[in-house]
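Quick question about two entries, pasted in order.
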Amino acid sequence: MDRKSKIVIAVFALVVVGIVITEIVRPRPINWRPSYTSVDKIPFGCFVLYNELPSIFPNSEIETVDKSVYDVLIDRDSSLTSNYMFINEYIDLDQQETNQILDYVDRGNTVFIAATGFGWELMDTLNIDFGADYSLKEGTTILDLTHEKFEKEEFKLSRGVFNSYFTSVDSIRTTILGHISYTIENYLDGEPDEEVTKPNLIKTRFGKGHFIISTTPQAYSNYYMLKGNSDYVAHTFSYLQDADVLYWDNYKKSGRVFIDSPMRFVLNQVSLKWAYYLSILGILLFVIFKGKREQRIIPIIEPLKNSSVEFAQAVGSLYHQNKDYTDLINKKINYFLAHIRSQYHIETAQINEKTIQLLAAKAGKDIQETKVLIEYILKLKNKNAHTEQESIELNKKITAFKQ
């Protein structure tokens, strides 16, 4: 390896090492992704809430659910009373899961849901619907509760809130437990901003049990639990029954980690990921430089010669040297007439005006051009001796006609 190659490799290695060190030491940006999992300590995870559940529900056994709702409710001990808690930006429930949850609540249990939606089947059965007011600029949102013990308390949210609310509920079976209040800015001159208050927390009866539903899952995240809004969470949980078991859903989460292959695990770990990338880079450098030094010489394979072209050139040279223009012209005429018969299926035994019109039509040529060519051919056929100039002229006319 020459000196120049060593310098290039050294510079490249230094750049890679510099990038790796920079990535390791630079501060990580805050992850504002909504996760709501019990292990995430990011702002919109639920690590704080999950670890406070034993103190909020001291008489309940906390059971973390890492499988489908259907599987949990099918296998549960129905002799024990329980609450089932779902917190996520959106809860995706299919038809079978919906049926199991409805049967679960109908038997006297309680389901707590904090989400902006949870599937059409359940919404239709409970006769409720959601809405939201989106704004280009985040503002302050205020949550309050309707119970007389909590009605003087307000809880402010300032980031990541979508201002979701209930647009319709079943008034016979439903009780409004809380509201969300916010301001809709009016960007038209002279028009005042609109102050909006909508229900965001309800309790709806189904059979012997209840659904408690909130449209503001952000209030239960780490960010707001640590910003002084933990009382709001405790107040909303006070509507749940005192049960033997509390099921915490950790399966239907937007931040749930899917590890279904060893490679996915490697790429999810920063150290292993960089080790993997550097190994791949090292192998590529080895292949490039090692292969360049030891690659065998590729032999040059001469292409096959076109002997038919050489034959045609030899025959042409023979006629040109013997100056037998009459034989050459007769062969050109015969080949051209054979071309007309095979290509356009026109009889050439007798060439007349009809033959010219038919050839012009089938070849897509001007009838005058076709007539000039045929008349020139007939003229040459009637001569006994020919010149080199006539041979050249015939070749030009035939070539122009075939183009």
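Here is the second entry:
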Amino acid sequence: MYQADIAIVGAGMVGLALARSLKEADLSVILIDTTPIAKPLSEQPELRVSAINAANKQVLEQLGVWQHLDQQRLSAYTQMQVWDQDSFGRIQFSSEEMGTSELGHIIENQSLVNALHHQVSQQPNVQMLPSTHIAKVLTGQAETMLMLDTDEVVSCRLLVGADGANSAIRKYANFPLTFKDYGHTAIVATIKTAAPHGKVARQVFTPTGPLALLPLSDPNLCSIVWSQNSQQADELLALSNSDFAKALQVAIEGDVGEIAVESARMHFPLTMRYARQWLSDGLVIIGDAAHTIHPLAGQGANLGLQDAFALADSLQKLAAEQAAFHQARQLRAFERARKSEAVKMIAAMESFKQLFGGSHPLKKLIRGVGMCTADAIPAIKQRFITQAMGW
């Protein structure tokens, strides 16, 4: 039998970030995942990337994780350009305006997982169980028992579900879920551009959905996230690579020159999810298990990491006070604070999607005037970029 104070189910970046943040806590941790955790990076850039903001970078540095990222695969961006394809609206942000060396970093998800794994694997208070499935969960007042498919048992006081959007732990807990189909499919791929990206993150809003070009470490490679209504996405996915590249060039208005598709194209439907309950005695959920949002602002990973850091902070304080950290009443403040942040982000993404979707003349006018006004007023621009950086 395995015994620990905390069992974390899900060893993606959020679950690993929680385990790493508990490195100095007087708490034992077991980390369980259905797949191998650390994996070698492919020669070509991984398809799944995240824009990690400055606030989370700072925490990852403090945790000794940032230093173990593959620096050759790390890409800082110093500018953001956002415009509306269907109006005159455009806004640009730069690190120079903020007095910083960069606005954020584009990181391959597996690269961050590998760096986190490297550090967590050296923690004496953490035991990892990769490639392990949970057959049954049994809860009691004092402890929770996890029956593994290996016929072994994990006993813990607090079970943390960090197991993604289709969380088995959330489903087991029967937490009520609000969800909405965005009606969008996200297409992700790696592309090569004739013109160097110049460390600029670009996003154009089209009538059928936003397209983001995220600069990678190679000056001519970008990761794209093209969120389109489902019918348009199906049509794009049916195109050959060369025709898909031409459609990209039209959407981005030739901003980076000729485009070539360098990878397979992956796609997935976009759904907003919000768990109306995150806690019960002996159980808590975080990250995508608790909320998923539209990727148009690139804040999903940042929101999940902040959940992990906030939960770790609460658990460490409760453990230091010898309080019953596994009881829901002790974690209510954490739940309220993080649910509030999730709701604000969900509402903001919905507002953006509604405002920038479609080509109604009034919407186009509002978008154009709003973006140009924001670009012309430093105080408004600074507020937007400060929030994007996580401060």
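Reply: The first helix runs from residue 13 to 21. The first strand starts at residue 2 and ends at 9. Hope that helps.
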